[in-house]
Write the structure tokens for this entry.
Amino acid sequence: MTFFFSFFSFEKVQSNLNIEAMQKINIRTHNPRNQYEKPHFFILSKGSNSGKPLDQPCPNCFVLEFSNEDEKENHYWLAYSLWQAKFWRYYLVGSVVLFVRLHEFKPQFRAKSEALINSYAQHIKNVRALNLLEEKEIEFCKNIGLIKQMRAAIFHSYARL
């Protein structure tokens, strides 16, 4: 329990981000023929999961390129948070297949990126908390699997009676 509270301590976090570089995020439609040299990730642009960040490209996605790996990581978590909060649902258009338009995605994501700069210390705390929660979720899923195996073993012991 002590670890949990020390994890959320309100220590001062130093910002090592280049604000000018963060404002120059290259956002465009992914083309499978392109090779990306800079750190990048992809955002799904079609379907009910529009806005979901991806490590690997898919046919219907945008690519976001950054000047360094730290910026990519920070923006990945921003994109993941916006997707989980269903932020992009308002911008979905289409009668059969829903999608987000690039010209609507860019200004909204850039605005959220600027807000990230203004609250960078809180963002770092949130990312740490999300990473810790993800680790705990994996640990709990493993434990649930073990519980299911034990339950199955007990049930099978009745079959041998």
